[in-house]
Write a structure and sequence with these properties.
about 200 residues; alpha/beta; five-stranded parallel beta sheet; 5 strands
Length: about 200
């Protein structure tokens, strides 16, 4: 079974993936952030490095999905390949950081990959407002995120809401985490576990 967690930067995807993986004894497939050779450069000069960064993420995610599909064990994935295309690349294009030629080239590659993968059995979307995102980004203290603007986060959130509203590729669980602290409060994590457990049981009904 393939479970995936989606959500904006700072929504808590990585933490929740680790916690759910440990709780359900699932393999955890984290986003390739620390080893990404373009991330630091991207936040310094988005115009120059947007296309390079997105192609790197797209290829990394494609390899992750191929690995997930080749194993029988249940895997929980931090972020989906759809977000790479429909959220981040789209936002960079609309914001003027990725020109139309590069964006079309990127989309052609993305659509070619779609022939070889399938959607997650369950997609979990962490709905998070800007104040919560900013608070959590500041709390984790990644230096390369210091230059991230509120406008950039707002634009991403708009793309996320539009994408989730029309998502029809499989089972979807939307969790509003604005008033939850599942890392520090056991009752909040238990609440999420119960929601996920109910959806998983539904997959086998």
């Amino acid at each position: 079974m393939h479970i995936a967690i989606s959500g904006n930067i700072g929504s808590g995807k990585s933490s929740l993936a680790e916690m759910l993986g440990k709780h359900f004894n699932w393999k955890v497939n984290q986003e390739d952030v620390e080893d990404n050779p373009y991330l630091l450069d991207f936040y310094e000069d988005m115009h120059k490095w947007a296309f390079h960064l997105q192609v790197y993420f797209l290829n990394s995610r494609f390899k992750q999905i191929k690995e997930i599909l080749s194993h029988k064990e249940t895997t929980i994935q931090d972020r989906t390949i759809y977000e790479d295309a429909y959220i981040f690349a789209a936002n960079l294009n609309h914001s003027g950081y990725m020109n139309n030629r590069d964006h079309q080239n990127y989309l052609q590659l993305f659509h070619s990959m779609m022939d070889y993968i399938q959607a997650p059995d369950l997609l979990i979307y962490l709905k998070t407002d800007i104040p919560k995102l900013v608070s959590q980004i500041q709390k984790r203290g990644r230096s390369y995120e210091d230059n991230m603007s509120i406008k950039y986060l707002k634009n991403l959130n708009t793309h996320y809401e539009n994408w989730i509203t029309g998502y029809n590729k499989g089972k979807l669980l939307v969790i509003d985490v604005n008033n939850l602290d599942f890392v520090s409060r056991k009752e909040d994590f238990s609440f999420i576990v119960n929601l996920v457990d109910r959806e998983i049981n539904g997959l086998f009904a």
